[in-house]
Amino acid sequence: MTEQITVIRGDGIGPEIMDASLRVLDALGADLAVDFQLAGLAAQDETGELLPQATLDSIERTGIALKAPLTTPVGGGFKSLNVALRKHFDLYANVRPAISFRGSMSRYENVDLITVRENTEGAYLGEGAFTAPDGSRAESKMIATRTGCERIVRFAFELARRAGRKRVTVVHKANILKDVTGMFLSVAREVASDYVDIDCDDMIVDNACMQLVMRPERFDVIVTTNLFGDILSDLCAGLVGGLGLAPGANIGEKTAMFEAVHGSAPDIAGRGIANPCALLLAAAQMLEHMEKHDKARRLRVAIGDAISHGDRTTPDLGGQGTTETFADALCERVR
User: Can you give the pTM of this predicted structure?
Assistant: First the structure.
């Protein structure tokens, strides 16, 4: 059955990797009807707005967005277009898989983990933020709610159960930030008691960073707060070869947005060498969300096979190919 999604082609390398990704999805037979909308610099150039109402309306209607990287201009307005979208649609769960692909630039061959990050509270809320007029002092509150903690931890356990994962690790700093992350840890332990089929442990964030570098294979699903999740998920991307292989999903009760988590890379825009893998892996997450599980599996297998054989891959993956030749190799495999 054909389903409609909202597509944002993005800025910088965004249009290049999105066009390549849509070509692969078409070859896969993903049965998607695309509603193209604007955001970022492209939207500002055409409409005068960074995030037009038409784009928000489209995402509201389809419930699913596939988004290439956006550029937030320096200066006033949005702190981040991505944060604005997450806040508008209450996309409280950020899901970042990190999986080793043979033939990539990864330092490890056995990483297969998922970071689940609370997306709407904590340090990024910026409640009461201000800087003194003389620049001598700055403040910002870190806020957590029991509801926010419970729903993200339960999301992580439900994801683990659906994906056949065996362990959830709760990452915190409750030894020092006893109130805010202490609440997160306390609620996580309560929620864990409802999932006796899944092992649960907890780890202080600095130790988690060290253990990820030393023994990443011990991790399965990590669930943590907004700031720690932002840091840890990029650390995990580094374990598997970088942000070029790092997809992300932002999921709420009614809406989900899937994206490449790297930037718009204006320095290589138009050169035809951008790696579309992060966006395609995000598309695989999207297909799973739409319960197109076989197509998601075929897409991931094709990506892994092309990388392992170095078949027309882009320079960041050690190849001599282009965005288009890499897409050609993937199209051949998914058909």
Answer: 0.95
